[in-house]
Design a protein that fits this description.
The longest helix has 26 residues, at 243-268. This protein is 42% helix and 16% strand. With 293 residues, the chain is α/β, with parallel strands linked by helices. Helix 4 packs parallel to helix 6, helix 8 (189-198) packs parallel to helix 9 and helix 9 packs across helix 10. It contains eleven helices and twelve strands. The structure holds zinc ion (ZN). Zinc ion binds at residues 6, 8, 49, 182, 237.
Length: 293
């Protein structure tokens, strides 16, 4: 079994005002194909992330109603996360979004929160972010953060907003909130590991890391020495609405991780991942993060 712990299935970029409300309104998305794919992939769960990108980029990746409806249709297979930009265009607290997020998380309509500081040009320790972290902590909802250099497209994401040390005080101030820092905080992975060692509520994922195979192998080797392998998850980071694109993305990642990663480690003289550690990456760690085991 596997868990795609970070995807954007049904969470494509749309401009403000063009948000779809329900999977039925997305002709390219095939719910029956999704059900079949869950069987074929032996998929325990898939996490799909909405990103609020209204402040700088004028749109959303996905939308709350659409992803909440998807989660409601398949509550055993889909976890949807809400997106939020804590600052509005005038650098003031985004009160409207805060109220929206509080309602979504309290009702369980969406089960986590996504912040993207480099895309929104704000710092993770800005005081405007704190009510959002408080809302997530109150609801028991994990906070995912795109807190790294840009990996997926050509969107400008200034690096000064992505330094991982900024998260140290944040995670300490919300000790009961789980933070998952996407993409191993690329390229500040060891700095992130420092935060993770001092804050047991900070996790990371290896999504979009396969393109740098030796770096990924080294980062996992470091994670072993820091004692952090059990707080690292995997996800495709697939963005789109096509199940028949998402399935090959899952297969390509899983097959590569199972067949190619350990040979690299072996060639480099680094400890290989055990079967249990590989299952942790591909499933068990995410299951623990979401309270499934
Ligand atoms: Zn992503």
């Amino acid at each position: 079994m596997i868990i795609d712990g970070h995807s954007h299935l049904l969470a494509e970029y749309v401009r403000v005002g063009e948000l779809q409300q329900h999977p039925d309104e997305v002709p390219e998305f095939d719910l029956a194909a999704f059900d079949a794919a869950c069987e074929e992939l032996d998929l325990q769960l898939m996490v799909t992330l909405v990103q609020d990108m209204t402040r700088i980029h004028g749109g959303w990746q996905g939308g709350h109603p659409l992803v909440a409806a998807f989660q409601k249709l398949r509550p055993d297979k889909v976890i949807g996360l809400a997106g939020a930009e804590p600052l509005d265009g005038n650098d003031q607290l985004n009160q409207k979004r805060l109220e929206e997020v509080e309602a979504l998380l309290e009702s369980g309509s969406l089960r986590g929160l996504v912040l993207t500081p480099p895309y929104g040009n704000f710092y993770a320790n800005d005081p405007a972010c704190y009510p959002f972290y408080a809302a997530a902590q109150r609801a028991g909802a994990p906070v995912f953060m795109h807190h790294s250099a840009q990996l997926a497209s050509l969107l400008r994401a200034p690096l000064k907003y992505a330094r991982t040390w900024l998260l140290d005080q944040v995670a300490a101030d919300f000790p009961k909130c789980t933070f998952l820092i996407e993409h191993m905080g690329f390229p500040w992975t060891e700095e992130l590991f420092g935060v993770m060692v001092s804050c047991p509520n900070v996790w990371t994922d290896i999504s979009m890391s396969r393109a740098r195979p030796h770096l990924l192998a080294w980062n996992l080797t470091m994670a072993r020495d820091y004692g952090l392998l059990d707080r690292i998850t995997w996800g495709t980071d697939y963005v789109g609405k096509w199940v028949d694109q998402w399935v090959p993305a899952v297969k390509a990642d899983v097959e590569w991780l199972r067949a190619e990663l350990n040979p690299i480690m072996k060639r480099c003289g680094w400890p290989e991942l055990t079967d249990e550690e590989m299952d942790g990456l591909l499933r068990a760690n995410s299951a623990r993060l979401w309270g499934l085991e």
